[in-house]
Amino acid sequence: MRQKPGRKPKEWTLEQIVAKGRPFNDCLIWTGGKHSQLGYGMMRYKTKMRTVHSVIAEIKYGTKPTKYTGTRVSRTCNEPACCNPEHIVIVDAGSLQRGNAAERGRFTDEEIKDIRNRYDNEYYWGIVSDLSKEYEVKPNHMSAICRRWIYKKVEQWK
Asked: How far apart are CA 136 and CA 71, in angstroms?
């Protein structure tokens, strides 16, 4: 069978990515291509252009964070071009909205249970808005928690 024309898929390993980093303080700064406006490290991975931190997260954790899973990739160092795998974490999208993803990471199971219990037992018009203000997230994110669209693995009664 004839091979398709075009670029061959590039499979990177974590060691190859780290080797392209230049040490700076505690970070490894990506020496390859960068996003012209945001400063993120960019690379071709499996025929697609991707940010370096998202590729590292996919290799390190074995999953690709997407908006459909409610997760995002973040760095504990806040350096856009950092490619140090120790600084790359997968966090809940809501914790990014709260601005404390590096410290907190995500909602705890107890918080999710509390939110859902309050939503189910104390329902009134505007409860989602009140809960979103209390937990410092956007109303659409709180609504997704209350309706069990995200955090599906957290059971209400254990």
From this structure: 17
Strands 21-24 and 27-30: antiparallel
Question: What is the per-residue burial (b if ≥16 Cβ within 10 Å, else e) of 13-37?
Answer: eeeebeebbeeeeebbbbeeebeee
| DSSP letter string, 68-137 | TTTEEEEESS--TTB--GGGEEEEEHHHHHHT-HHHH-S--HHHHHHHHHHHHHS--TTHHHHHHHHHT-
State residue 104's pLDDT score. 44
Q: What does pTM read for this prediction?
A: 0.57
Angle between helices 127-135 and 109-121 (to 10 degrees): 160
- State the chain's mean pLDDT as an integer: 79
Q: What is the pLDDT of residue 102?
A: 42
